[in-house]
Design a protein that fits this description.
The complex is a heterodimer.
Chain A: E1 2-7, H1 14-27, E2 32-37, H2 43-48, H3 51-54, H4 62-66, E3 76-77, H5 78-81, H6 85-88, E4 97-100, H7 113-129, E5 132-137, H8 143-153, E6 162-169, H9 172-183, H10 188-194, H11 199-204, E7 206-213, H12 226-245, E8 253-258, H13 261-265, H14 272-276, H15 283-295
Helix pairs in contact in A: 1-15, 7-8
Chain B: E1 10-21, H1 30-36, E2 46-48, E3 54-56, E4 60-68, E5 76-89, E6 93-103, E7 105-106, H2 113-117, E8 122-125, E9 127-128, H3 131-140, H4 149-161, E10 177-185, E11 193-199, E12 204-211, H5 217-242, H6 263-276, H7 293-300, H8 304-323
Parallel strand pairs in B: 6-8, 10-12
Antiparallel strand pairs in B: 1-6, 1-10, 2-3, 3-5, 4-5, 5-6, 5-8, 7-9, 11-12
Classes of the chains: A alpha/beta, B alpha+beta.
């Protein structure tokens, strides 16, 4: 299955959350590919802790591949090449986890029919090799979004299941922006229909992930005054109403990732070690990530019996 | 200048084979296979049903004029043609391979293309060929711009995988492999020998052979196709068994809990192997008799067929175990 990770704005935690979902699925035994269509962003290398492995992929990344300069994009085996001590001790029975990086310093992708065909070749190849393929798209209505919409509408891809995750933060502006990215005039759904997607099917394959959501009940806020607490509760309620009005209410939310202090400081994978041994991460964060990872392929969360 | 009629001795054969599962829900029947493999309108696809169902496309030639890779940095320009073809075994495993033969010497200029076209799959170096350095360079992979026979095989593979006959519903997850090979002449009077078979990276294998002078390049390529096919089968079956949890025991702490009816997990993982892979094992099926002894080397060490049979037995044992009604099983095999 292909999973596209999109967001309207930067700073929504899209890359770090989708990388965590990929990691969680690999731990459960799935073979997972993480495809970095967020061009020129160094996030993936940082999250998976593979800075030196990225050297040597400068001219063999996804840009070079889509432009036809190399026949296969470079892949980085995370368990083997990461410098992260916990990841290096790959857990027994975990699946493969492979990062396909973009070219260093490679801006937006090439456009055109050839790039589309090669993009489809890539998706089909990964689909044959991996149980789950997570494609991280750059923020906003980028060319990458159009490319993957065109690819998934292509007849060659008719039997390849795909799903979209739209990440947004839990604020007024982010809720409106995320809804706009999907539902507005030039949003994902409209652009998809223009490229041959069935509106209802495409719509049914989109879910939202609320990231960095402060939980008023959390101990983080135990010191706040009554006035502050009441204000937070009211805000939360108003946001839920807004989200529902914008058609991104609870029924289309796949999950919520709580505000996690360490992710505010550093983009990284949350390991069991971070929760149990060093206790720098919250248990709730890890549980939320595990749950969303599970729901990715749980049809009951995608409106299917 | 060398007279045109005395062909210089061939001193090096080289090729690369890409092997992958055909991405189709059902194996292709002979007619569909022939359709897939019809790369040229003017030549027929070879289809054979004994000892297994096998289709092979006609050769397509690619003209090349570029440096040969070498291990010592020598840049030897070479001109000629590379032959590529595709083969489908039992409508299920797709192989594309490209190969060429290099002559010992050649003129220090490019001849008219007509000269090369009547010598399919022959590449002539400018001047003298530093054979050993080029053989090592070919196996090790060259620099950007060097002659890359793998690119030609990959291009053909991409072309075939776009064919509308394929529904892109592979019945199991698998990884493609590449097998790169070189063959140099055997010492006088010696038979063929396999000097090296290496699992270089995850997906790359390299093979170094010695073959008696006069061995046809196509015969060596056929042997390497056969090695690549069986190496891929073995690799794929090993990975299927490697990835599943067998026998009774508690599920791992992070493992997704198995469904209440645990049957599909192990059976679901092994069944595609039974449906699509187990009947494909037939070493030497397409290897010319005089090269068949090369297989014996691999049968002795590491023992390809020995390992395959052990894996097949494991698959069958597991399926048998799961066929016993659970009430009669002493311990519930929880995957």
């Amino acid at each position: 299955m292909l999973v596209f990770a999109a967001s309207d704005k930067g700073g929504t935690g899209r890359s770090v959350t989708s990388a965590n979902l990929a990691y969680q699925r690999a731990l459960t035994g799935d073979h997972v590919a993480y495809v970095d269509f967020d061009f020129g962003s160094p996030t993936a290398a940082a999250v998976f802790d593979v800075p030196s492995a990225m050297r040597g992929t400068e001219e063999q990344g996804l840009h070079s591949y889509l432009e036809g300069e190399v026949t296969e994009p470079a892949g980085i085996d995370i368990w083997r090449q990461t410098e992260h001590p916990v990841l290096r001790a790959r857990q027994n029975q975990s699946g493969r986890l492979v990062l396909y990086p973009g070219d260093v310093g490679g801006g937006e992708f090439a456009t055109g029919e050839d790039a589309l065909e090669r993009c489809i070749d890539l998706f089909l190849r990964l689909h044959g090799e991996f149980d789950l393929v997570v494609v991280d798209l750059s923020a906003g209505r980028s060319y990458a979004v159009d490319l993957v919409l065109a690819a998934t509408a292509h007849p060659r891809m008719r039997n390849v299941p795909y799903r979209w995750l739209v990440f947004h933060r839990w604020t007024h502006q982010h809720v409106i922006a995320a809804a706009g990215l999907v539902h507005k005039e030039n949003g994902i759904v409209r652009s998809g229909v223009d490229r041959g997607h069935d509106e209802e099917t495409l719509q049914g394959n989109i879910r939202f992930v609320r990231a960095a959501v402060p939980d008023p009940e959390s101990p983080l806020w135990s010191q706040v005054s009554h006035a502050q607490e009441a204000w937070m509760q009211a805000c939360n309620k108003a946001l839920r109403r807004l989200a529902a009005d914008q058609r991104i209410g609870d029924s289309v939310v796949l999950g919520t990732v709580p505000l996690e202090p360490i992710l505010q400081w550093r983009e990284q994978l949350i390991t069991e070690d971070d929760v149990l041994s060093t206790q720098i991460a919250n248990k709730e964060t890890l549980e939320a990530l595990e749950e969303i990872a599970r729901r990715l392929t749980d049809d009951s969360h995608w409106g299917r019996p | 200048m060398r007279p045109e009629d005395t062909a210089p001795r061939a001193v090096l054969d080289c090729g690369e084979v890409r092997t992958c599962l055909l991405p189709a829900g059902q194996a292709l029947d002979s007619r569909a296979a022939a359709q897939l493999l019809r790369l040229r309108a003017d030549e027929r696809v070879l289809v054979s049903e004994r000892p297994n169902v096998y289709g092979r496309s006609p050769d397509v030639l690619t003209g090349v004029d570029c440096p040969l890779p070498s291990s010592n940095g020598a840049r030897v320009r070479a001109v000629g043609t590379v032959a590529a073809r595709a083969a489908l075994t039992e409508g299920r495993v797709l192989q594309t391979s490209a190969h060429f033969r290099v002559t010992a010497t050649g003129p220090d200029h490019r001849r008219p293309w007509g000269h090369y076209l009547v010598r399919p799959a022959v590449v002539e170096p400018f001047g003298r060929l530093p054979r050993d350095a080029v053989a090592e360079g070919l196996l090790g992979g060259g620099r950007h711009g060097d002659l890359d026979v793998g690119l030609i095989a990959a291009g053909l593979q991409t072309r075939l995988l776009r064919h509308p006959l394929l529904d892109q519903r592979p019945p199991l997850r698998s990884r493609p492999t590449r097998l790169r090979w070189v063959a140099v002449p055997a010492r006088d009077g010696d038979g063929p020998s396999l000097e090296r078979f290496t699992l270089a990276e995850d997906e790359l294998r390299t093979v170094r052979l010695r073959v008696p002078e006069g061995t046809a390049s196509a015969d060596v390529a056929a042997l390497c196709d056969d090695l690549a096919l069986h190496d891929w089968l073995l690799t794929t079956l090993v990975r299927i068994l490697d990835g599943i949890r067998l026998g009774p025991g508690l599920p791992g702490p992070r493992r997704r809990p198995a469904a209440a009816d645990d049957l599909p997990v192990v059976v679901g993982a092994l069944r595609p192997a039974v449906d699509h892979l187990l009947h494909l094992w037939m070493p030497r099926a397409r290897v010319p008799g005089h090269l068949a002894p090369l297989w014996d080397v691999l049968e002795d060490e590491p023992g390809f067929t020995r390992q395959w049979l052990a894996l097949v037995q494991r698959v069958r044992d597991q399926l048998t175990l799961h066929a016993i009604p659970s009430a009669r099983r002493e311990v519930e095999p929880t995957p």
